[in-house]
Design a protein that fits this description.
The longest helix has 17 residues. A 6-stranded mixed beta sheet has the order 2-1-3-6-4-5. It has 206 residues and is an alpha/beta fold. The chain folds into 2 domains: 149 residues, Ribosomal protein L4/L1 (Ribosomal Protein L4, Chain: A, 3-Layer(aba) Sandwich), CATH 3.40.1370.10; 41 residues, no CATH class. The radius of gyration is 27 Å and the shape is elongated. It is 31% helix and 15% strand.
């Protein structure tokens, strides 16, 4: 398939050819959902923790006599039923990560790219560069793109990176870190021709 390459000023400058297998014709939303759930589970910290009976501070002395007080027998002030005692079956530090085959992860990325391409929200540009460090000048150049933008390139020029840094609706991502969640999160995907070719080689590799 042939895709038009534009400049940041919305001028057609070139055409680039990609394999028909790169962007599936039918977008599988279920695969995209599985990959996003895998990403979200992996990003969870899992550092919530409650103290067990062995970790609660307190004396090991028996609180009161076994018999004669009229109260239920107790062996420790650190028991779960005592005030200030331990928690039974409380949360522990753990990983929330779930397993997902590498094939499904790569397929999810292809379907996410296909969803942007089919909705005409994937824009391929020749390069991402700014002649001067100015957010206002850059915003004028990309005013033809409506909505939030995810820029993807192998490496970003300093002027371009700094011009985008104070705009919350714009995010920069290196080609090696492109992922399904960020592609779906932003309205538009603007990627350089070189990065997309590199991505094609990586996703179609056996």
């Amino acid at each position: 398939m042939l895709i038009k390459v534009r400049s940041l000023d919305n001028q057609e400058v070139d055409e680039v050819e990609f394999s028909d297998d790169f962007c599936p014709a039918e977008v599988r939303q279920d695969i995209i959902k599985r990959v996003i759930e895998w990403q979200m589970a992996k990003s969870m910290s899992g550092c919530h923790k409650s103290k067990t009976r062995s970790e609660v501070s307190g004396t090991g002395k028996k609180p009161f006599a076994q018999k004669g007080t009229g109260r239920a027998r107790q062996g420790s002030t650190r028991s779960p039923q005592m005030r200030g005692g331990a928690t039974v079956h409380g949360p522990l530090v753990r990983s929330h990560e779930i397993k997902l085959p590498k094939k499904i992860r790569k397929l999810g990325l292809r379907h996410a790219l296909a969803s942007k391409y089919n909705s005409q929200k994937m824009i391929i540009v020749s390069e991402l560069e700014a002649k001067e460090l100015s957010t206002s000048v850059l915003l004028k150049r990309i005013s033809w793109i409506e909505g939030s933008i995810l820029f993807v390139d192998q490496a970003f020029e300093n002027n371009f990176k700094m011009s985008c840094s104070n705009k919350f609706s714009i995010n920069l991502l290196p080609e090696c870190g492109i992922n399904v969640y960020d592609i779906i999160k932003y309205d538009n995907l603007v990627i350089t021709k070189a990065s997309l070719k590199k991505l094609e080689e990586r996703l179609l590799a056996r």
